[in-house]
Amino acid sequence: MKRRSLVITDETARHPFRAGLAPHIRLGTEPRATARRRPWFKLDDLRDFLMAYCACFLAVSLYIA
What we know:
Elements: H1 16-19, H2 23-26, H3 43-64
């Protein structure tokens, strides 16, 4: 039995999944070189984490006592 692909592959896609996609779907998927990445961790995130941690610690402490 001969195995046939439903979509003609494109070797410039560099990934098996992307190679199987139609060209009109794959357009615009290359990452931009000029785009700046957003920092994944900010001081606001640390503040929110500490507030939630202290609130949970206080709630558990009051429940146990």
